[in-house]
Design goal:
Layout lengths: L1 H17 L2 E9 L2 E2 L4 E5 L2 H6 L4 E2 L8 E6 L2 E11 L2 E6 L5 E3 L4 E2 L2 E2 L1 E2 L5 E4 L3 E8 L2 E2 L4 E5 L12 E4 L5 E5 L3 E9 L14 E4 L5 E3 L3 E11 L3 H4 L11 E2 H8 L2 E8 L9 E6 L17 E3 L5 E5 L4 E8 L11 E4 L7 E4 L5 E2 L4 E5 L5 H5 L11 E2 L7 E4 L2 E3 L3 E3 L2 E5 L1 E4 L4 E4 L4 E4 L13 E4 L2 E5 L6 E5 L11 E5 L5 E4 L1 E4 L3 E6 L1 E6 L2 E3 L3 E5 L2 E6 L2 E3 L3 E5 L6 E4 L2 E3 L3 E5 L20 E3 L2 E3 L4 E5 L7 E2 L10 H5 L2 E2 L10 E2 L16
Parallel strand pairs: 1-9, 1-10, 9-22, 13-21, 23-30, 23-31, 32-35, 33-36, 34-37, 35-38, 36-39, 37-40, 38-41, 39-42, 40-43, 41-44, 42-45, 43-46, 44-47, 45-48, 46-49, 47-50, 48-51, 49-52, 50-53, 51-54, 52-55, 53-56, 54-57, 55-58, 58-60, 59-61
Antiparallel strand pairs: 1-2, 1-5, 3-4, 3-6, 6-7, 6-8, 7-11, 12-21, 13-14, 13-17, 15-16, 15-18, 18-19, 18-20, 19-21, 23-26, 24-25, 24-27, 27-28, 27-29, 28-31
């Protein structure tokens, strides 16, 4: 290591001669400036691990000041030094830092490097404590990453809250991990750090978890962008070098816009996040891993997100991060197009008017969904007049005002119903989806996505049909009718869904579904967190009749027929990378299944998915049998796999329920 340092120190004059950007700053410990420290600049995180810096500064003076000159580029800044016989290390929380055209001031805060990782015999796990100035940090969360997954922001490979004593214990497979912790002073989940929030980096990252051993570490913290809170030392900065914050704000490259509610009122203090789009088709799980690209709205609802790389970005606004939205949270996707993307095709520009309308998730109780009133159409309501003759709706259409569909509709792509708009579908309407597979995953991409409101009321004589447009239709020809954090009073009555991946998918919304038929789909109905009333429907000849995950919301499933599917009801464990994701299945509002005929499904009437650890009560239904032992054979739970939880089906009905299913 000393030979490498000597080599780069000899190279330093040559580097300085070619450099055209000045960098200055200071290195601090909690007791004051760190004299004699050296600052290192690396071109990659791998170079940190291999000890190959692109630049090493001269030692800091007694005020902790260092000076450097670097060519334009992207660098990881660290510092090391010794004070009072103790070794200190700093890793800048904004790494990698872009060195561009203007001189910059970069402050580094160093924490003491204490004992190396301590290994003990035991199950492979990563144990430790998060500290600030030597004291345990309550209310922090710790995230671990693989060294290849930098930058180390957003949600990690594993992310969990620490205990009240600042301690954590993560059972993880053997391997090397980068350990970072954060403390959000506002207490609002996994939000991007603001000034004063704590950033914590284990000085000896990456840490190795060994087979059959536990490892113990300490992860020290410092306050983001608030050196004065860490150490009370007079400022010495007199030059006009830009701080990292001022440099980023002056660049003003990226996207900006305004967040309002459906009434046009600005929403302050909400976080807007930009996720690099992962495919030509939007999926909710694309937003489950967090992003470092974010901004917060001011009192007028305005926000700015700095972007420095070209590409398509999905944009979403929400007030709590780290998981899917829960009941009562504020949420909204950008709906300038049906993919929810902003095409930032040229780095270094500013795209304006990326405006987002938000609303409260599941704002109304189920009572409001049970018998939703017929709302009078607004003056701006439009009718697709060509629909009576047949109309083609091209991909990326956004329904941004109250609209009525009737007749024959052909959809080629995705139709998105914007918040504040209602799509009304008249009885007898036939909606066909062309099979278009843009992401080559074997599933058609045709979809109706509702963030606003949809009312599809057919009749017994004139059902509304959602089906494939293909001459020889197949399961998965189109995606679904999907409700995502939609407005209240969504209604599906006397409809038929066929040849879809999932006929209806409901996330974080209020929907009433009645007297409808789900047939020849991969999944008939799929729901997550929702207020949902499902009554008098037929789920027949699907791969899965009803699929759900997570206990949250007021959900009533009654008076339905679930028959001749491969699996009648499937309860799966939610797999999402979020803060405390191991605890996501601990919510306490299970769905209520009762008075249904769930029978003669080919594999199982009810099945639990892999790793399901929550019991589910589905009592008071007819199972096609009147003997407990026979019913048990139609249910897949811990009787078949002792790692699964239980399906509680008794007491059960001993005869078929009359008058259930679609009321013709």
């Amino acid at each position: 290591m000393m030979r490498i340092l000597a080599l780069f120190l000899l190279m330093y004059p040559a580097l300085a001669a070619a450099a055209d950007i000045n960098i200055e700053g200071r290195v601090f410990t909690e007791s004051g400036p760190l004299n004699g420290a050296k600052v290192y600049a690396y071109k990659s995180y791998e170079d940190i691990q291999s000890g190959a810096p692109a630049y090493i500064s001269e030692a800091t003076d007694n005020k902790g000041l260092y000076k450097a000159q670097l060519p334009e580029g992207e660098y990881y800044f660290t510092a090391r030094g010794i004070k009072d016989g103790k070794e200190y290390s700093a890793y800048h929380g904004k790494n990698p830092i872009k060195v561009k055209k203007e001189d910059i001031w970069v402050t580094l805060i160093a924490n003491e490097i204490k004992l190396p990782p301590v290994y003990e015999e035991g199950v492979p796990s990563l144990n430790g404590i998060v500290t600030y100035k030597g004291q345990p940090v309550k209310g922090a969360y710790v995230a671990i990453y693989t060294p290849e997954s930098r930058p180390f922001r957003g949600l990690g490979l594993r992310t969990e809250s620490v205990g009240g004593d600042g301690r954590f214990n993560l059972a993880v497979p053997p391997g090397k991990y980068v350990v970072i912790a954060k403390k959000i002073e506002s207490g609002k989940g996994n939000k991007p750090l603001k000034k004063g929030d704590l950033f914590c980096y284990y000085p000896q990252n990456p840490v190795e978890v060994k087979s059959d051993k536990t490892v113990q570490i300490e992860v020290p913290c410092y306050p983001k962008d608030d050196r004065n809170a860490f150490v009370d030392t007079p400022s010495i900065k007199t030059n006009d070098y830009a701080t990292l914050e001022s440099a980023a704000s002056r660049l003003k490259t990226g996207i900006q816009g305004k967040v309002t509610d459906a009434g046009g009122k600005p929403v302050a203090g909400i976080t807007v996040l930009a996720y690099k789009s992962e495919s030509p088709v939007f999926m909710m799980y694309h937003l489950s891993h967090g992003t470092e690209k974010s901004g917060e709205t001011d009192k007028n609802g305005n926000y700015f997100i700095h972007l420095d790389k070209a590409g398509d970005y999905n944009v979403v606004a929400r007030d709590t991060l780290g998981d899917g939205p829960h009941k009562g949270e504020i949420y909204g996707l950008y709906q300038g197009n049906s993919r929810h993307v902003v095409s930032y095709n040229k780095a270094g520009v500013l795209i304006d008017n990326v405006n987002i309308t938000v609303g409260k998730v599941m704002a109304e109780s189920l009572e409001a969904v049970r018998l939703p009133p017929d709302k009078p159409e607004k003056k701006e309501t439009t009718t697709d007049k060509a629909a009576a003759k047949g109309v083609t709706i091209v991909a990326d259409r956004v329904v941004d005002r109250d609209t009525v569909w009737q007749g024959n509709i052909l959809i080629k792509g995705v139709v998105s119903v914007k918040r504040g708009a209602t799509l009304t579908i008249k009885p007898g309407t036939v909606i066909k989806f062309s099979r278009i597979d843009q992401d080559d995953n074997g599933f058609g991409d045709g979809e109706i996505l509702v963030e606003g409101r949809m009312v599809a009321r057919g009749t017994g004589e004139k059902r509304i049909i959602f089906t494939s447009a293909e001459e020889r239709p197949q399961i998965n020809d189109w995606s679904y009718v999907q409700f995502i954090a939609a407005e209240t009073d969504n209604v599906i009555e006397y409809c038929q869904f066929e040849w879809a991946y999932s006929g209806v998918m409901v996330h974080y919304s209020n929907v009433k579904i009645s007297d409808s038929v789900f047939t020849n789909n991969n999944r008939g109905l799929h729901f997550n967190t929702a207020n949902l009333l499902v009554e008098h429907n037929n789920f027949v000849n699907n791969k899965v009749g009803i699929r759900f995950m997570r206990f949250e919301g007021n959900i009533s499933v009654k008076n339905n027929v679930v028959r001749n599917n491969d699996v009648g009801v499937l309860f799966v464990r939610q797999h999402i990378n979020a803060v405390d994701f191991m605890k996501l299945d601990k919510s306490v509002e299970p769905p209520h299944f009762f008075n249904n005929n769930i029978f003669e499904n080919f594999k199982y009437n009810v099945s639990l998915g892999d790793g399901q650890n929550q019991d589910i009560n589905i009592s008071n239904n007819w199972w096609g049998e009147d003997k407990k032992e026979k019913i048990e054979k139609t249910i897949y739970d811990n009787e078949d796999d002792n790692e699964l939880s239980r399906v509680v089906f008794f007491p059960f009905l001993t005869s078929v329920v009359q008058g259930v299913g679609v009321r013709d």
